[in-house]
Every structure is written in structure tokens, then in C-alpha cells.
Amino acid sequence: MSAEIKITLVRSKIGVSARQKAVLDGLGLTKCNKSVMLKATPEVLGMIAKVNHMVRVEE
Questions:
Q1: Nearest-angstrom CA–CA distance, 10 and 13
Q2: Model confidence over 17-31: pLDDT tens digits?
Q3: What is the separation, in whole angstroms, between the first and last Cα of the chain?
Q4: Under a CB-based contact definition with an 8 Å cutoff, are residues 55 and 8 in contact?
Q5: Would you say residue 47 has pLDDT above 70?
Q6: Secondary structure (3-state) at 43
Q7: Phi then psi for 21, rounded to 5 degrees?
């Protein structure tokens, strides 16, 4: 079983590249301060690595 992680968007998507916006939409983060609970799969961890300057991750 994979662990659940909480991901929170802490910076606005304004001014970021279209690729980073697509990653954030893929994670389910649409607004500032929105949080989602996801399983810590390699795919999700790779997406978090692409936008790590915009999100806060808690286990």
C-alpha cells in the first residue's frame, strides 16, 4: 500500500508555464490554498517534483 500525502497549492498559477499549469490541473489543484489527498505513487511524486516551488507536501 502506498502512503497518502496531502498536497496544498501555496502560490498562484499566474505567470507559470502552460506545462506547469497542466501538472497542477492533473494533481487536482485549481485554486490557491486548495488541498488534495493523493497516494504517493512514482507518477504523483514526479509531478510534485516539477512544481515543488509552488506546493506544500505533508504526509
A1: 10
A2: 999 999 999 999 999
A3: 14
A4: yes
A5: yes
A6: helix
A7: -60, -40
Cα distance between residue 48 and residue 59, in whole Å:
13
Phi, psi of 58 (to 5 degrees): -125, 145
Residue 5 DSSP one-character state? E
Q: Quote the CA–CA distance of 7 and 57 in Å, as a whole number.
A: 5
**Which of 51, 50, 8, 48 has its CA nearest to residue 32?**
8
pLDDT above 90: residue 1: no
| Domain chopping of the chain, boundaries | 4-58
| Grid cell of 20 as nine digits | 506547469
pTM, to two decimals:
0.90
**CATH H-level, domain 4-58: superfamily:** Ribosomal protein L30/L7 (3.30.1390.20)
